[in-house]
Amino acid sequence: MAEHGGTVRIFVDNLEQVKFLEEYEKKQSKARKWSAFIKVDGGQKRAGTSPKPESFKPFISTVFASPAISVYGFYSHAGDSYGSTSLEQTVSYLTREVQLANDAAAMALEVLAESPNRDIHNQPFVLSVGSTPAAHSASAKSKMTSQLHGVLELHAGNYPMLDLQQLHTALIDRPRISQRVLATVISYYPGRGKDGLDEAMCDAGAIAMSKDTGRIPGFGGIVGKSWRLGRISQEHGTLEQMPPDPSSVQTDSTLNVGDIIQIVGQHACLISAGHPWYYIVDSNIEGGADKVIDIWVPWKGW
């Protein structure tokens, strides 16, 4: 990958990982150092080493002493920011996350200053933080810049596509969502749904849409229709008719067998992982959303 300008960078949050890397490099004809982010737990208990000084300082001291690791920076992911429902809440999440990575870098610099290996680190740490909601509130960066012990990096994997989970945060509106799954209505059930509303079947189920849910009910919304993907099996989904909502564009209650529908899912990351390629359209050019201008094939190397 290096010959193409790429870098493989790893996460480290446990000293056993460091031992494995050291043992691996001992067996190589030419040992190297792995560029690594130190993953810090922001309180979500999802991944990461504890940021408490009594455990973090001995941990980072051992990492600095390793011949197999070059510390690139400190990484955190505020997954709980997906529960935000306002800009103020999201700014608060991002500010706390930046502070977490910054505190880790400050402790690392303290340890490094007393280390015989202090000369090995000669570039600013990268403080990599964020989530898609946090990216929409990146003004929080200005609150921290003058105090940073490194260079701030904002990561946001879902930012280009967006989905119903992001819609619930109130930081985006529906036109910003760029992902759709095309499905075909394959059966219809008049009056079978709640309060005598209709239901239908489509050929997109859990494999096409994932089983992720969110604060907005259902597994997906149908573009332009007062319907939602309410239940799913592996290969098919049950569409539920909803009362038309005059305050939104989802007012068309008609649906027929054979119709091709566009479904906006709950979580674009997991949905896109289930498809081998993506058809790309651009509403800003002639032909609009009906013209495929490219096909993107995702890299699935793991």
UniProtKB/TrEMBL annotation:
Family from the record: Belongs to the DSD1 family.
Keywords: Lyase
Species for this entry: Paxillus rubicundulus Ve08.2h10
GO aspect biological process, one term: D-serine catabolic process
Protein name as annotated: D-serine dehydratase-like domain-containing protein
Domain of life: Eukaryota
Pfam families documented for this protein: Ala_racemase_N, D-ser_dehydrat
InterPro entries the UniProt entry points to: Ala_racemase_N, D-amino_acid_metab_enzyme, D-ser_dehydrat-like_dom, D-ser_dehydrat-like_sf, PLP-binding_barrel
UniProt GO molecular function: D-serine ammonia-lyase activity
Ranges of residues in domain D-serine dehydratase-like: 178-282
